[in-house]
Amino acid sequence: MIIIVVTVLFAMVLMSMPIGFALAITGLIFLLFFSTVSLEIIPVVMFDGVNSFPLLAIPLFMIAGELMNACDLTRRLINFATSMIGFMRGALAHVTVLTSLFFAEISGSATADAAALGSVLIPEMRKKNYPAGFAVTLVACASTMAILIPPSMNLILYGVIAGVDIGQMFMAGIIPGILVGLTLMVLSYFYAKKYNFGSEAPFSLKNVWQSFKEAFWALLLPIIILGGILGGIFTPTEAAGVAVITALLIGVFIYKKLKWRDLPSILLGSAKHTAVIMMIISGSALLGWYITNAQLAQEVAASVLAITENKQLILIIINILFLMVGMILHASAAVIMLVPILMPLVNQIGIDPVHFGIILTVNLAIGQQTPPVASVLLTACQVGNTRLVETLPFLKYFILAMLLVLLLVTYITSISLFIPNLLN
């Protein structure tokens, strides 16, 4: 039955139906024909799916990110990154990765990261004779750190659906996110040697200090968010509210780039993005309710355990499934669809739910770069005015590098759990 459910869902997605509607209609079909419950339950289930205090963090972090984006933030972060590592061979490539790391701590969205940084860094790399395909691929892959580094929207979604503390998920994503960045920088170094990419500027403490002062308030925002959560001062949702107020004050009174007349468009844009995500969550709540009541998740667990009870082999099966789904579905939709189905299996074989959430997220980071959907890669291609085919010679090596990180995260649990365990 679960195969039929997934087939119907994928068929609707492949027909270009919005994923939120595809989830809701799939749930409605199976409730109509394979269940005896009253259809009056449908609006109740869909409303309860989004009636969650932790989910309020999503629109709030979106607003905070949009507010900071309106403050010429990208240039400040690029200048700071350049001052620190501009002396290295292939400096612009390394600056792209480091800036993405900084930006991820503010945006929480890989697509927003790729759009904001790509519009500046891709043209700059092309001016310095970096291949267009390399520049676009690097920006896209570096942007995926945003779904690992807090405040990640995907980690918030996972925490809500799996019933895991979002603060722990935020802490668990830090080391894997940095590991992705370091891997991309190593690969960029080899490309720098191959294509003879140059440096940007000699190292100077004076330049570092000057650029740090310009970027200080932007860098302060994630410190406030993480510090408040770690210190027990506020919850992740309350941290999102604090982030909005802080970003507004920084933009209006410190950077003075944000005007009050800009607020309506910023709020409207955030509302549109929130509506899309909430429709996906609401639709998935209906389908998830059917899957739970029909005990399909337990059937999945039993089927996998009938093949093997070896935990390491099961992790390989789960990773293959995640990679395949990530090629077709957007990250948030994949989280919402897969987590309710697989959590009984995860609990049965003794995988830590925090560790499992990071494994899922790294897989989806790879999926964001993998055609046919490749949402972040296509965003970078559009921003960089580059055809997808130009990225393929470089993309395969970047995907291999990220697969290496996935293997490390999957089988070395301390990469994900070291910081959460340290803070417990």
Structure description:
- This protein is mainly alpha-helical.
- It has one domain.
- 78% of the residues lie in helices and 0% in strands.
- The chain is globular.
- It starts with a helix and ends with a helix.
- The relative contact order is 0.16.
SSE topology:
Elements: H1 2-14, H2 19-34, H3 41-50, H4 57-69, H5 73-85, H6 91-107, H7 110-127, H8 132-143, H9 153-162, H10 166-172, H11 174-195, H12 205-230, H13 236-254, H14 263-293, H15 296-307, H16 311-326, H17 331-349, H18 353-367, H19 375-383, H20 388-411, H21 414-423
Largest sheet: none
Number of separate structural domains: 1
Assembly category: single chain
Mean pLDDT comes to 85
Strand residue percentage: under 5%
Order of helix and strand elements from N to C terminus: HHHHHHHHHHHHHHHHHHHHH
Gross morphology is: globular
Proportion of residues in helical segments: over 70%
How many DSSP E strands? 0
Q: What is the terminal-to-terminal distance?
A: 41 Å
Number of helices: 21
Structural class: mainly alpha
Given as residue ranges, the uncertain stretches (5+ residues, pLDDT < 50) are: none
What is the radius of gyration computed over CA atoms, rounded to a whole number of angstroms?
A: 21 Å
Short summary of the structure?
It is built from 21 helices and no strands. With 424 residues, it is mainly α.
